Amino acid sequence: MLVARIKITQTKSGVGAPEKHRKTLQALGLKHQRSVVQDDNDAIRGMIFQVRHLVKVEQTEGQVENG
Fold it and tell me: Residue 58 maps to which CATH number?
């Protein structure tokens, strides 16, 4: 079964950003100039919205494993 996934890439540094933004980047699993793939859901979208000026988002598709 295919599920919507998003690729999130941190493009700008969190240094100098408010602590809330730095913790959000950490919760997303991001480090500067690195990418992660996450499920596309409301919680992840909310976190992206908080740090939208620091990240780039791309739509992808992923397989869901049963088990």
Answer: 3.30.1390.20
Asked if residue 5 lies in contact with residue 37, where contact means CB atoms within 8 angstroms, the answer is yes
pLDDT in tens, the chain (67 residues): 778 899 999 999 999 999 999 999 999 999 888 999 999 999 999 999 999 999 999 998 766 665 5
Domain hosting residue 41, numbered range: 2-63
Annotate 14-27 with DSSP letters as a single string: -TTS-HHHHHHHHH
Q: Quote the DSSP letter at residue 3.
A: E
The distance in angstroms from the start CA to the end CA of the chain is 13
pTM for the predicted model, two decimal places = 0.84
CB 28 within 8 A of CB 43: no
Q: Are 10 and 54 in contact (CB under 8 A)?
A: yes
